Amino acid sequence: MKKVVVIGNGMVGYKFCEKFVASEKFNDYKLIVFGEEPRRAYDRVHLSEFYDGKTAEDLSMSTASWYEENNIDLHISEMITEINREHKTVANHRGDTYSYDYLVLATGSSAFVPPIEGVDKEGVFVYRTIEDLEATEAYAKKLKAQGKTEAAVLGGGLLGLEAANAVKNLGLNAHVVEFAPRLMPRQLDKGASDMLQAKIESLGLQVHLSKQTKFIQGKKAIEGLQYIDDTELKVDMLVVSAGIRPRDEVAKEAGLAVGTRGGIVVNQQMQTSDESIYAIGECALLNSMIYGLVAPGYDMAEIAVDQITGGTSEMPEYIDMSTQLKLIGTEVASFGDALNEAKKEIDEITYENKRKGVYKKINVSKDGTKLLGGILVGDSSDYNSLFQIYINGLKLPEEPEDLILGSRGADGGALLGDVMDLPDDAQICSCESVTKGQICGAIESGEANDLGEVISCTKAGTGCGGCKPMVKDLVNATLTSLGKEVKDNICEHFDYNRQELYDIIKVKGYRTYDEVLNAYGKSDGCEVCKPVIASIMASLYADTANEEIAIQDSNDRFLANIQRNGTYSVVPRIPGGEITPEKLIVLGEVGKKYDLYTKITGGQRVDFFGARLDQLPLIWKDLIDHGFESGHAYGKSLRTVKSCVGSTWCRYGMDESVSFAIELEERYKGLRSPHKIKGGVSGCIRECAEARCKDFGVIAVEGGWNLYVCGNGGANPRHAELLAEQIDNETVIKYIDRFLMYYIRTAAPLERTAKWLDNLEGGIEYLKEVVVDDKLQLAEELENEMAKLVDSFQCEWTQAIQDEEIMKRFNHFVNSDDTDDNLVFVPLRDQKMPQHWK
Amino acid sequence: MQNSKSMEEILEIYKTTSLESVKVWFEAAKVEDFPKNGGACVKYKGKQIAVFNFERKNAWYACQNVCPHKMEMVLSRGMIGDHSGIPKVACPMHKKTFSLESGENLNGDLAAIATYPVKVEDGTVFIGFEE
């Protein structure tokens, strides 16, 4: 068995192992991997997500057991300091030696820190590893505590902008300082850079171009940047992201050939100047270039595996550096020769729309037959199609400008024609080098039956994810061509989507989950179909969540929101956010009595946290005795209707927003739906109730109310769209009744109204036809269904505390009155919070 | 508050028990104390055990109540069902699913949970332990 030692456990080093494991000859080799970082290889491309709450584990490329399962020895926190080529051994920092038959250098790169005076000052960081991010985060926290807020990022390239976004997410004011006269100088032209700059400045980041830093101001810690042109920028922190330097020091020490500006020289077989040593990824100097992207690094890993196992494949002379990414919420893509570096005779076609913040440029050969490269900023939805045309040398339309202009309003597929017309060897996923033939073949051979299975067997779409829409189109088209139906079944137990199940249950009048499962499903069901059917029955029959508790979603089963340590939160309804001082005192008393962490919510009510399961009925009994009822904060149902104070008090108010919000909240409370629903009512166009961020929002205007629908906050904020103008209270209610019932009938499980509208053919115009013009002649039926639900409302907590059977549910143990002794709380600002796990 | 347990300390008391190695059959509760096609939590010598009644196929399963994802005592409050015929429970916190036969995490790479044998005699539910 031959020994292969891999130095470096980054993305490319990991990919090498993964490709090796997949090789037929894997069993003839033993892999020993060294990583100097304290954790297994992680996804550095998505590093900034670390500040969005992703953990190091989420970013990890593999599970802890993966290496062991594949019999790979992984040594982390171990730095290789010496290669002895004569004896074919490597030694770590402790002097332990390991022998090798083949050695693979995947040492990657380090952040390049330019030799500026003062870069060693406190508060200067680089952006490369999770440890760097942790150090930056800790420093940012310290700054904020001192009221300091300004942070600069040195470098306006791809990584620099990522770093700037990360700094902004830390709550600091981010300044991007770039030496070149434009952002991302390697990928973008001036027009694209201007558009990107305008976009990111509108998000509160500041961009300083053509600035060369002379030295860093400050005594011990950084206080500012002094530029060469005698201007300055006062900042409290600096993140340097000015490029990368290949890690070639061990290779150099061992006498391997390295480039004059660094990088381990390799040939097309990825071999270094020593034939048993390979170098891959950002440490390798191939074609006199360092390739700082993941896709070519992965290709190098594949070539090295093939070469070591006796294959003959080589890296191509030309390596594609196309990229598509989202930077600070802005889509940016660049492909082929975007800057015409080959200095060919070309025609540039540009489209610029400042209002929408979109810039598109393509380079077309003089004879109009070839697409050579291009740039997209603000809207990269055409990237996949353009890239396919470019990389496969496909024929261009008669008027090449149609490539960026003609596709307006159409999806990417239309631009390319039919995805199935692509040649079989067309590369669809460039991160994982997956071709159209492999994707379609996986389905044709029966190896995969749907998108998920195609992704898991080909790995397409698991890198940057940009190709996923095209992979999905190919999967669906292949399934259709094989005569298989493309279905959005809710789960493995039902061959139906939610709308079909809704109709089935309604027509057959089923009242229990088992009836539906026995007649239309199979096996024992699961955590997906159970709550979907519970929700459908609630929408059809006004059932509360106290029916059939075992099929209710986790929160509905205990009529409360399960929180971080397995305790629950309690939210009584406060319609429209209006509350008397007496009732407010009651809430204070209840919070105090049960020692609950108390907070005002975004929906204008009060949330109590830290209630044990067994305390829930006691707390609710107290609340109900004082006139409160369930706020349904735990349900996929109406949450709140938020209001501003309106014309009752406000000198600008056009109408009584509070009164109307209360009326709407009372009307739709308890309504179960495919996802949660929120409403808002504003008394004038100043919109203090943020009604347009809600599933339904009403705003008072001259002559009535404007009704907006299908907005939401959350991960993908959306403003609601105008459904009807200047209508009276009665008409508002009529339209909301119709709109909500139509949504409840037709949406997919857990599909918010905004997403539902996106998927509704014909969009808002079609919705207007259904709701306002009654094109489907459904209006009366929808209104009657809603009226029945409104009339049958019951407070499910009142129901619960009056029923001894239901109350049994709230004991932690079935065989003991003890409570969960696993709960530990720690103090927090005069209240308490769950203890963090060590 | 300082003497709270570490993750390892919490997990180490839960060991998968095979039918052959059962030394103690602990009388947990009556069949009707458990929800149909759902679960409840049983306390046994400092352990929290989730017990599930698959009434549809007349089968019972038991496992540790603590979810290895975030170490909370919650699995008994999860929904049950099957994945390609394998009986499973979905944690109510983040819907991580575990086989109730092998304990394996079916939709991720978490550590397997410990499972325990269950028997029902004369309407009483017993859980098998090694000690």
UniProtKB/TrEMBL annotation, chain A:
Q: Which residues form the BFD-like [2Fe-2S]-binding domain?
A: 428-476
**Keywords recorded for this protein, A-Z:** 2Fe-2S, 4Fe-4S, FAD, Flavoprotein, Heme, Iron, Iron-sulfur, Metal-binding, Nitrate assimilation, Oxidoreductase
Q: Which residues form the Nitrite/Sulfite reductase ferredoxin-like domain?
A: 563-623
Q: Where is the NADH-rubredoxin oxidoreductase C-terminal domain?
A: 322-386
Q: Which cofactor does it need?
A: FAD; [4Fe-4S] cluster; [2Fe-2S] cluster; siroheme
Domain of life (superkingdom): Bacteria
- Domain FAD/NAD(P)-binding, by residue range, is 2-301
**Matches recorded under Pfam families:** Fer2_BFD (PF04324), NIR_SIR (PF01077), NIR_SIR_ferr (PF03460), Pyr_redox_2 (PF07992), Rubredoxin_C (PF18267)
The pathway noted for it is: Nitrogen metabolism; nitrate reduction (assimilation)
> In what residue span(s) does the Nitrite/sulphite reductase 4Fe-4S domain sit?
635-773
Family annotation (Gene3D superfamilies): 3.30.390.30, BFD-like [2Fe-2S]-binding domain, FAD/NAD(P)-binding domain, Sulfite Reductase Hemoprotein, domain 1
Q: Which CDD domains match?
A: NirB_Fer2_BFD-like_1, NirB_Fer2_BFD-like_2
NCBIfam families given in the database record: nitri_red_nirB, PRK14989.1
Family of the protein in this entry: Belongs to the nitrite and sulfite reductase 4Fe-4S domain family.
Q: What is this protein called?
A: Nitrite reductase large subunit NirB
Give the species this sequence originates from. Answer: Aquimarina litoralis
Q: What is the taxonomic lineage of the source species?
A: Bacteria, Pseudomonadati, Bacteroidota, Flavobacteriia, Flavobacteriales
